[in-house]
Automatic annotation (TrEMBL):
Keywords: Dioxygenase, Flavoprotein, FMN, Oxidoreductase
A molecular function GO annotation: dioxygenase activity
Lineage: Bacteria, Pseudomonadati, Pseudomonadota, Alphaproteobacteria, Acetobacterales
Protein name as annotated: 2-nitropropane dioxygenase
InterPro entries referenced in this protein's UniProt entry, alphabetically: Aldolase_TIM, NMO
Species the sequence originates in: Acidocella aquatica
Keyword Flavoprotein among UniProt keywords: yes
Matching Gene3D superfamilies: Aldolase class I
């Protein structure tokens, strides 16, 4: 058994070697960037435990991001990244702030990263990561100089695409070998991560389990909602009329999600009655969730706020320290390899 364990450890280390080397970490595990959650405390804890923390810049102005990076660097000397939203009006300035602070990795999310932003990041010495929702875009990003990709399935929490990780992995992993590819969406156990590593992934990105960790600053009510939830409770937001698109966001069903359905119906009725034009109606629909994530994460209003969570929420059974989560993932992967070797 000891030999099996040793061989399993070596095999697992070899499988995640490319991802760990790219991140500069012990574990080839990235943390998903979650607004209001992925800040200095959680990011530094993940990096200190051997994973790769990522600051969620979101809508932060440059000065606030600069302060958050400095505060994180005061809490860890390990590598971490910054997630920048491509539609941010000050994207170029945010990139420069990351470079001045010697941030090692910049993750572009929320759309196709502009070529000049990619070049600026790379010229400044940072490694660039981008999200690829389809094979054609994965190939395009590789050609544009992106250093690594994340493929995130619709099982993930927060803003999601329409395709599951199971399908994306089959579509993309066999064809993208030039850069490391990290898998994301619905991951909560080491056996699953192991399976994707064996398919050719370089590592994995997890968010939901870290959101409910000891070091997460999320309100206790937010974490308790995760503990009580099942996978089927984490559903995408629903659009009731194609004329008024709703960006799909996966979160726990609560009174807020039910009211959003009623709100859409009321706005649609006003539009049909001529009380609102199309633009005004669209804005009224979009404004419903303004500040809703902060209400849930920081204020603890999990009934009316937006409790973003992936379908892996059903596997969050306790509030663990980050280091324990990472150790569990590794132990589960090793146990799977040992069990396989015992059957051989």
């Amino acid at each position: 058994m000891l030999n099996c364990t040793h061989d399993a450890a070596g095999e697992y280390a070899a499988l995640q070697a490319r991802g760990a080397a790219f991140l500069g970490t012990e574990h080839a595990i990235m943390a998903g960037a979650m607004s209001w959650v992925s800040e200095r405390h959680l990011v530094s804890a993940i990096s200190n435990a051997g994973g790769f923390g990522v600051i969620a810049c979101g809508a932060m102005p440059p000065a606030l991001l600069e302060a958050e990076i400095a505060a994180t660097q005061a809490m860890t000397d390990k590598p971490f990244g910054v997630n920048l939203i491509t539609m941010h009006p000050q994207l170029d300035e945010l990139v420069q702030i990351c470079l001045r602070a010697k941030v090692t990795h910049i993750v572009f999310a929320g759309g196709i990263p502009p070529g000049p932003a990619i070049r600026a990041a790379k010229d400044g010495g940072a490694k660039v990561v981008a999200f690829a929702p389809a094979l054609v875009l994965a190939k395009r990003f590789v050609k544009s100089g992106v250093d690594a990709l994340v493929i995130e399935g619709s099982e993930a929490g927060g803003h999601i695409g329409p395709v599951s990780l199971t399908v994306l992995a089959q579509e993309i992993l066999p064809h993208i070998r030039e850069v490391p590819v990290f898998v994301a969406g619905g991951l909560a156990r080491g056996e699953a991560i192991l399976g994707y590593l064996e398919m050719g992934a370089a590592g994995a990105q997890l968010g939901t389990r870290f959101a409910a960790s000891v070091e997460s600053i999320a309100h206790p009510n937010f974490k308790q909602a995760f503990l009580k939830a099942n996978a089927r409770d984490a559903l995408p937001s629903v659009q009731i009329d194609e004329r008024f698109p709703v960006i799909p966001v996966r979160g726990l069903v609560n009174e807020g999600t039910k009211r959003f359905m009623r709100h859409q119906a009321e706005v649609l009725k006003k539009f049909q009655n001529g009380e609102l034009d199309k633009n005004a109606a669209q804005l009224e629909i979009e404004h419903f969730w303004a500040g809703a994530l902060r209400r849930a994460v920081i204020d603890g209003d999990v009934e009316n706020g937006s409790v973003m969570a992936g379908q892996s929420v059903g596997m969050v059974t306790s509030i663990q320290p980050v280091a324990e989560i990472l150790a569990d993932l590794r132990a589960q992967a090793l146990a799977a390899l040992v069990a396989r070797a015992a059957k051989a």
